[in-house]
Specification:
heterodimer, A: six-stranded mixed beta sheet, five-stranded antiparallel beta sheet, 0% helix, 61% strand, B: 114 residues, seven-stranded mixed beta sheet, 11 strands, globular
Amino acid sequence: GQSLEQPSEVTAVEGAIVQINCTYQTSGFYGLSWYQQHDGGAPTFLSYNALDGLEETGRFSSFLSRSDSYGYLLLQELQMKDSASYFCAVYNQGGKLIFGQGTELSVKP
Amino acid sequence: GAGVSQSPRYKVTKRGQDVALRCDPISGHVSLYWYRQALGQGPEFLTYFNYEAQQDKSGLPNDRFSAERPEGSISTLTIQRTEQRDSAMYRCASSSSGQGDEQFFGPGTRLTVL
């Protein structure tokens, strides 16, 4: 089967750094994606890691360790607008994307 | 088009009726995906297409659910004999190549079965 685990909630203050972890179990793993979803909105793509290591895109970075079946999303210089749900998702050999249950991030002033 | 569009945005139907949900992907995108998302949960994979070929339908809950993309562009997800448990947000997404690249999601169709 396939499963992903990520924390259900994280709270942080403006300007801080927060890390959202994701562990997964899947067959035919190709890569790990992260998506952001604001209340009432559609998920939007943040990053995709197919290889081990860190990918940086502005204030957001994503890390993957294939040997540990583990990845994380790092958000720096948090802003109020970063309050949203964050989903890790496994892209597998069959070509489909399997999402985790999401982490609700609350950024406080 | 500028983005993925879905219609209708809201659909209320009575139990036992059939519904058809439409997705219009970004022009030229090869891959099209259907998801179902319950409140507070992640999108749940239903099925996906490359061009007009349905590649994987393992996520369709039962044989009341079907999908097609006859000309490799617009897709329709059909639910026959709807049940209350089918009530959810149904989301469509498209990607240019389907090789793990960015999926662009539509606004979704909120289905309510009374």
